[in-house]
Write a structure and sequence with these properties.
The complex is a heterodimer of chains A (80) and B (233).
Chain A: E1 2-10, H1 17-28, E2 41-47, H2 52-67, E3 73-79
Antiparallel strand pairs in A: 1-2, 1-3
Chain B: E1 4-9, H1 16-26, E2 30-35, E3 46-49, H2 70-79, E4 84-87, H3 89-96, E5 103-105, E6 113-121, E7 137-144, E8 148-150, H4 153-161, E9 165-170, E10 189-193, E11 199-202, H5 219-229
Parallel strand pairs in B: 1-2, 1-3, 3-4, 4-11
Antiparallel strand pairs in B: 5-8, 6-7, 6-9, 9-10, 10-11
Classes of the chains: A alpha+beta (80), B alpha/beta (233).
Chain lengths: 80, 233
Amino acid sequence: MYKAKVNVTLRNSILDPKGKAAHHALQNLGLKSVKDVRIGKFIELNINAASKDEAYLLAETACAKLLANEVMEDFHITIE
Amino acid sequence: MPKKIGVIVFPGSNCDHDAYHAMKHIMNVETEFLWHKDNDLSGIDLLIIPGGFSYGDYLRSGAIARFSPIMNAVQDYVKKGYPVLGICNGFQILLEAGLLPGAMLHNEKLRFICKNVYLRVESTRSPFTGALENGQVLTIPVSHGEGNYFIDKKGVQKLEEKEQIAFRYCTEEGHITQEANINGSVSNIAGITNEQGNVLGMMPHPERAMESILGLTDGIPFFESVLHKLEIA
């Protein structure tokens, strides 16, 4: 059994209003050295696969078909 | 055979009854509900995907609904050239299903927006707006948190070239301004069609602007255009 950890984030070219709002709040907290905040989603998949590569391919299909919308989001997968 | 309109009901749809009421009791066309697990669209002359929060908007709005059984039938229905109108969450589902280009982001200012807005008719190429006039301004309510339409520059260009932009947010006088762009949508876009012109997605709710006792009636000329041009009524 493999565990796929998936991060889905808005493309860099797209304004992230939630990240921006969180950034403002951090500024108000006095954490002035935080220069930018981007908020995304973290998803874990437990995958029954014969190899790490197979698990990766499965996770990639899941991301491309459902978990991320590639018009506006990027995804990053790590397999454990 | 009398013409018939179908309204899809997903778990979490909440404008299905508004659409049904507007079509059946105001436009006087035979209308029926279609459960999202149905897969038969035969005899349906116009399909409406209504607003709401299908599957609680989990993951992204429309992302899960697009995998409902009925959506396979909708893909075929569109391929055969039949007309589909997606309103609000219906628009989001059509985007996720790849039946319309682009994607929907959270409103630029993050607030849920529920108010009456002005829409300018930008194209009369498709049957949905065919009996309206270019530049005509309609007052229609919006009610959404994720209505910030996004498509890349090339995409907008293509939409413009193929006259796929049906509606833009505008001022009362019909000017396209940044202030009128309520949710941050690319190029003030409020509604688009596919290239063939048989699928329209729009964020505003024309089915909520049908009766003067409730305040607005500009949904009527819109649906008159739809039904007249599609030869349904």
